[in-house]
Amino acid sequence: MNRSEAAVSAEPREEAFSYRPLYAQVKDSLVRRLIDGAWQPGQLIPSELELAREIGVSQGTIRKALDAMTAENLLVRRQGRGTFVAQPEESRILFQFFRLVPDSGERSFPTSVVVDRTVAKPGVDERAALDLSEDARVFRFRRIRTVDEWPAIAETICLSAARFRGIEDLADIPNNVYRLYSERWGITIGRASEKLKAVSADTDDARRLGCEQGAPLLQIARTAYDLANRPVELRISLCRTDRLHYSSELR
Amino acid sequence: MNRSEAAVSAEPREEAFSYRPLYAQVKDSLVRRLIDGAWQPGQLIPSELELAREIGVSQGTIRKALDAMTAENLLVRRQGRGTFVAQPEESRILFQFFRLVPDSGERSFPTSVVVDRTVAKPGVDERAALDLSEDARVFRFRRIRTVDEWPAIAETICLSAARFRGIEDLADIPNNVYRLYSERWGITIGRASEKLKAVSADTDDARRLGCEQGAPLLQIARTAYDLANRPVELRISLCRTDRLHYSSELR
DNA sequence: TAGTGGTCTAGACCACGAC
DNA sequence: TCGTGGTCTAGACCACTAT
Description:
The structure is a homodimer.
Chain A: H1 22-35, H2 48-55, H3 59-71, E1 75-78, E2 82-85, H4 90-97, E3 100-102, E4 111-120, H5 124-130, E5 138-147, E6 150-160, H6 177-185, E7 189-200, H7 203-209, E8 216-226, E9 231-239, E10 244-250
Antiparallel strand pairs in A: 1-2, 3-10, 4-5, 5-6, 6-9, 7-8, 8-9
The first copy, chain A, binds a DNA duplex through residues 3, 10, 12-13, 19, 21-23, 47-49, 57-61, 63-64, 66, 77-83.
């Protein structure tokens, strides 16, 4: 099969304005398979040579596409075994999406207790962040998260009730919600954007976190996006940073 | 020149325990040229084919090394022109090392006014962070940084007096200190690690930043490292986040 | 027009893991 | 022993830049 017969339609000359390298087009078409659920989390995907034959490009081009997806934590490659679709297991989520670490000691996944859950009309911020229509409803829940047996984080999570249909009937909301999103609704979180501010604890925050009213708290506003780059989750975390800090690496 | 004669000594079989891929060894040897100053910021480096001939590996191996260095912001590649050593110019530093952005509006480089400068014995934290010897001295200076005509950041920067010899005699400390480090002492900042906490403004902070005593401030403790991964700068920033936030992308 | 980096291909050999 | 991904090579053509 030569390039003009390829499933991803190569031949850059024919599309002078919207040129994308072949490996990028291949990558897009493979990401599509993740979005559509053709490839499920944890699944072994076909080998490079099989994909090369199927799509009609060389192994090197497939490799560059797979390497790019691996760099984005969408795939996991294991020498001698094959390439697997990444899963939202504890350790990966902990490493990729949780930046609060104890001042001294190991990074650990906090436990959670859900304290409140409602279906409501979204606020303007929520509607904007989640790109919701005029009459949409959201499911909102709050939880207190404990790190090293110390209640340190008060979190409010806001989701589209339509997109997460049935979530209000769940008996239990597990600690690792990204795995829940994946297993129950087939929604994979691919990236997130966080905005941090320092705020004062109000009486509610103070009660929940066991600190003084007016104590400084780290507020983290996170918007999480799915593989198609649509906003999925809005999360406001209020954190005591007496014994924790938010870690950020700049390169 | 064949591989066994190569400057980076290939032949993985001969070093079973400390195996590194050839492209990684090439990368290390090229980073060395940056550390040693053989390649200066802004300089055009030899083409891929020249480097391939010189080192005795193929162009593809050179390419993989250069791509890795480009991903780390050490080099800038421009199609048709060549590969250049990255420079600490405003826009790059702004993008790479400055994560405080106005809540609404464009990201901009803050201006600075230096308010204090001393040579002193380091505190224990400073000595540990900068890996200093028992009798070392540090140069410490404070500055107030203004974003959108609004004094928002109080910063204390701490450097080894020995490493930055003569810095105490500088008439003026410019806004972009990473360019100063580079131009005056040949020190390139390659990466930085930040730890964020929420704290309360003390009377000093409040006066300097024009806020209430006890107001919540975002404290950013940054350790910046040179290309050889040695700690170079310790910086504590206290930020009002009334109109600013710290932006963090998780992927 | 010449030279650069960017893309793509094809094929070789290696290290690793499962059988 | 076999198949996988990992590395390395060699060479082709393209797009961009400067002259």
